[in-house]
Structure formats: C-alpha cells, structure tokens
Amino acid sequence: MEKKHVKGVNRGEILLYALSTCVWCGKTKKLLKDIGVEFSFIDVDLLEGEDKKTIEEAIKKWNPKCSFPTLVINNKKCIVGFKEDEIRQELMK
To answer: Which of 36, 29, 34 lies closest to 82, judged by CA?
Structure first.
C-alpha cells in the first residue's frame, strides 16, 4: 500500500483518504497544496485485496460511513468532506 507524499510546511501528521476520481477529494488535495502544508494521501479506489480492506477499516475508526474525502490531522481530529473553512482553520493555526 502506497501513501503518496506532498512536501510543504510540517503541521504534524496529515493523512487524506481519498478516491482518485472524486471531485471533492481533488479539491481537498488542491486546498492542502495551496495552504502549503505537508501531507500524505491514499487513493483508496486504487488499492486491492487486503490493502484495501485494511485501509477501509482504518477509515471506519474515524468515519464509520467510510465516505470521502476523510482527512485525519495528527491522529486527533477528523474532517469528513470538503469543508474548506474548517480545514483552513485547523491547519493555519
């Protein structure tokens, strides 16, 4: 399973669970890049087999509906969906 990494300012561990074909996931990736923070992302729809099951279980701990995008910040906060204001507020402290 491959996490893709985007360089930027370190604001802690930022992990985005996304779908490669999801418009809102794409907007979230763009927003994170525009803010300039370092983050990792996993395009869940490109995974197969055990990797996919493992990641889906990890997502469900934060977001029981397993919907996308799911953004986990420092293993403390989860933002589900494209919520630009909330993401900016959390990451630009």
So the answer is: 29
Please state, in angstroms and as integers, the Cα–Cα distance from residue 91 to each residue in 2, 13, 20, 60, 74, following that order: 24, 11, 23, 23, 11
Q: Are 18 and 47 in contact (CB under 8 A)?
A: no
Q: Which residue's entry shows tokens 């890049």? A: 33
- Give 33-81 pLDDT, tens digit per residue: 999 999 999 999 999 999 999 999 999 999 999 999 999 999 999 999 9
CATH for 4-77 is 3.40.30.10
Handedness of CA 19, 24, 26, 28 (dihedral sign): negative
Domain-by-domain residue ranges, the chain? 4-77
